[in-house]
Amino acid sequence: MQQDGLNSKLISKGVFILGRVHNTKEFQTVFTEDCLLFVAQLHRTFEKERKRLMSVRSQKLNEIQGGKLPCFNPATRYIRTLRWQVDEVPECLKVRKVDVVCLDVANKKVLDVCIASSADGIQVDFDDGFSPTWKNVILSQVNLFYAVRESLVSNAKETPLLIIRPRSLHLPEFHMIVDGENVCGAFFDFGVFWYHNAKILSDNARGPFFYLPKIEGYEEAKLWDDIFVFSQDKFGIPIGTTKAIVLIENLLAAFEMDEILYSLRHHIVGLNTGKFDYIASFIRVFSKDERFVLPERSALGANQEFLYTYNRLLVSTCHRRKAYATGGMAPNLPKKDESKWKLQEKSVFESKLVEAKLGFDGALVASVDFAQSCRKAFDEVIGSEVSNQIRNSVLKEHPHSEEFEKKFASSLLAIPTGDISEKGLFQAVQVSLFYIEAWMRGKGTIVLDGVVEDLATAEICRSLVWQWVRYIKPNSDESFHIGSPPNIPKQIKHILETLIDEKITKASDEKKTKRWKEASRLFFLILNSEQFLDFMPNLLSRFIAKAELHSKL
Questions:
Q1: Who's near 395: CB < 8 A, 6+ residues apart?
Q2: pLDDT, tens digit, 9 for 90 and up, residues 219-233
Q3: Which of 96, 165, 320, 515 is catalytic?
Q4: How far apart are CA 415 and CA 23, in angstroms?
Q5: In a 3-state reduction of DSSP, which class is residue 127?
Q6: Which of 50, 391, 445, 511 is deepest in the core (most CB within 10 A)?
């Protein structure tokens, strides 16, 4: 049947799938009627609350941009001061020293490499490292369907745990309509995976496990807890079997870490840092305040007060509640040159050693080749026979006394210092442009100079440039005179023209040329918007959906 000029399939009353892929083997394997009806049930049960929470996000942002600074919530202080702990995790989750991020689950070979790795777990990324084309969504779920049955259950002791990172709560899945509304991408990713794999994983004590991204407060964590309880009850899985790791990637979430752990206390493993998303959220929250202009990305290291405090508070909060604290992702990819490879190994080891000394229990890597470097760093601090640092504490102050909260609120909001160089501006524009172009062709990551750039790093780069265009004042740095605000767009335009001309010269067909020009246009659209764009996918996914809805798998 046709709906709005598109080929669509009626699944049940009010439930449609849009696109032209319904007769493919890939689609029919996973996207069965019962599976899609479960997704529809999730939508009908939880969409109203999800919408309310998105409204709460907007309300909080408006209050801050009206002059109210973020703070620890007085209404939930009882949670922060009471003695309680999260439930103990199952044996298979007790070592969290290294997870590898599967950055292209739509590619079976990439997933297979992760499964064959020495990591403790695999973060299957449907969020920051994923471009949600319909083709990618379908192939990813198909690959997971077979991986669970062919490798992850039959060879459980030899394979890492599968930990799914669904899309964020604010992102839609344009290809599924329920009662006239797009289904939330998080509900879709979770629902399809859960329907086919949750019971098998549960029966084999291997899951189901999840990473929960972009949580902005404890009420959003409570929504996920309700989804877990609902889904476990429906599939006959004991309550508490499902476990999750929450990514603290938002400034406001940093003020509610105790509350987030408490809301998910029967289903949580711990909290994970998301440095670049966190920095981008810092810009987003204070986008209307020129006092909070940040330096270039290379200056935003863990030694900056606001990041050091964020890490320190996360570790302390987790360990006080007997939860795990895991660090960020090492974005390095191996180079063919052996000497450069050794330098990258050293870089990964040293960065993870810093996190281990901060008290983290483990971290993530982008490449399986550096899993052992990560593990070696944590073994050096924790010990190879010890699984975590929960017995330790990095804070001596009385947790959440008034003095504690005042001190840490101030430190979490400390404005970072640093420079903006010509190189810093070029790199920020380059990453933003290249990532937008990659997303449009269905790639969720790019590689520049042997380092993975994903949505998180693209978000911070475009956010920084957006700030600089509006708020930077002339300076006297002889190495790079950034000039007055009217000059910054001129410099950016020159950088873009240089990059685009180079890419168009190398483009082999008109389609590639058109895509680069469109990427440049979208970047300018984002950059010139007076209202800060909360998340790039809110804009970019519409362009992907428009193309995908009129194409074949």
A1: 312, 313, 316
A2: 999 999 999 999 999
A3: 165
A4: 54
A5: coil
A6: 445
Between the alpha carbon of residue 228 and those of residues 110, 138, 190, 194, the distances in Å are 28, 23, 10, 10
Mapping DSSP to helix (H, G, I), strand (E, B) and coil, where does residue 186 land? helix
Amino acid of residue 519: A
pTM attached to this predicted model: 0.93
Tokens linked to 298: 């290379």
Quote the pLDDT of residue 1.
37
Write down the pLDDT at residue 478.
Answer: 39
Both structure tokens of 192: 């399809």
Token reading at 243: 């476990």
Say if residue 103 is exposed, middle or buried (CB neighbours under 10 Å; 0-12, 13-18, 19+).
buried
- The terminus-to-terminus CA distance of the chain in angstroms comes to 18
* Amino acid identity for residue 371 in this structure: A
Per-residue confidence (pLDDT) for residue 395, from 0 to 100: 52
What is the rounded distance in angstroms from the CA atom of residue 360 to the CA atom of residue 254?
Answer: 16
Q: Please tell me the distance from the alpha carbon of residue 93 to that of residue 503, in angstroms, as a whole number.
A: 45
- 261-270, pLDDT tens digit by residue? 999 999 999 9
For the stretch 389-448, pLDDT in tens is 998 655 545 566 788 888 899 999 999 999 888 889 999 999 999 999 999 888 999 999
Q: Is 57 a catalytic residue?
A: no
317, 257 in Cβ contact below 8 A? yes
Q: Which of 99, 225, 258, 454 is catalytic?
A: 454
CA distances from 213 to 95, 149, 170, 313, 524 (A): 21, 26, 11, 19, 27
Determine the length of the chain.
553
